[in-house]
Amino acid sequence: MEERAPAKLDTRSREDVRLLRAYHKDGDVGAREQVIERFLPLAETLARRYARKGEPLDDLTQVASLGLVKAVDRFDPDRGTSFSSYAVPTIVGELKRHFRDVGWTVRVPRGMQERALKVDRVVVELSGKLGRSPTPAEVAERIGDTVEDVLEAMEAAVAYDAVSLEAGRSGDPDNEGDSLGDTVGAEDRRYDLVEYEASIAAPLKALEQREQMILHLRFVEDMTQSEIAERIGISQMHVSRLIRRSLATLREGAGEQ
C-alpha cells in the first residue's frame, strides 16, 4: 500500500500538467475548468484554515477560489513542478492580501502595520504591569525602537478603524441631518490604476508594436492565446513566449522605476 501511494500521486500530477498544458498551449477552456474543479477542495481547505480570524467562511472561500483561478492562469506547465506546489502559496497570498485590505480602513505599509500591532500589544502588557497607560518612551524602551517610531505607529493605528460615513456630522447617531458621506466627493474608480499605469507606461512603449497588440488582446479584450494566434497568424506557443517575455520586460521596467 505504501509503495503505491507515490505512484497514485504522480499520476494525478501528470494529469494536472496535461490539463494545464491543454489550456495554456491549446487554449482548451474546458481543461481549465477541470483543473479548477479538481483543486477547489484545496482552496476550501485553505479558506477554512483562516476562518478563525473573524471573516465569514463564504467570503474566504470566494477569495481562495479567486487565488486558485489566478494560479491556474499564471502557472507555466513547462516549469517542471507540480501545480499544487505553485497553487498553495498563490492562494494563501490572496487570503493574506484580503486580510490586509479589509483589516485596515486606510492602506498602510505592511511594515508600519506590524509595528503598530506590536506597539498595541506592548501598551496592553505594560498597562497591566504599571496600572496605568505607559508613556511613549516606556513603550519605545520595551520594544527597542525610538519614541518617534512609537508615536508614528500609534498614529498609523488610527487607520485600523474609522467612523462610518453614514454617521451624522454632529456625531449623534440619531441625527437625521447631513452625514459624513455627504462631504465626500464622487468616487473615481480609475484612481487606483494611476500608479500602475505610470509605472509601466515607459516599458510598455518600449515594446515592439506586435507585443503591445498581443498584450492588449490578452489582457484588455480577454482573448485566449489560441484566439490571438489565429488573429495574428503565428503559433499559439509563439504567442505564449511573447507574452511571458513582454511581462518580464514590464516587471523589470516597473521595478527600476
Give structural notes:
It is a single chain. The chain has helices at 4-26, 29-49, 57-74, 83-103, 110-130, 136-143, 147-156, 193-206, 209-219, 225-232, 236-256. The protein is mostly helical. It folds into three domains: 4-103, Four Helix Bundle (Hemerythrin (Met), subunit A), CATH 1.20.120.1810; 110-161, Arc Repressor Mutant, subunit A (Orthogonal Bundle), CATH 1.10.10.10; 193-256, Winged helix-like DNA-binding domain superfamily/Winged helix DNA-binding domain (Arc Repressor Mutant, subunit A, Orthogonal Bundle), CATH 1.10.10.10. It is elongated and about 75 Å long.
SSE sequence, one letter per element = HHHHHHHHHHH
| Assembly context of the chains | single chain
The largest β sheet comes out as: none
How helix-rich are the residues, as a percent range? 55-70%
Counting DSSP H or I runs of 4 or more residues, the number of helices is: 11
Shape: elongated
Radius of gyration: 25 Å
Care to count the β-strands? Answer: 0
CATH architecture call of the largest domain: Up-down Bundle
Class derived from helix and strand content? mainly alpha
Summarize model confidence as the mean pLDDT. 77
> Which spans of ≥5 residues are poorly predicted at pLDDT below 50?
1-9
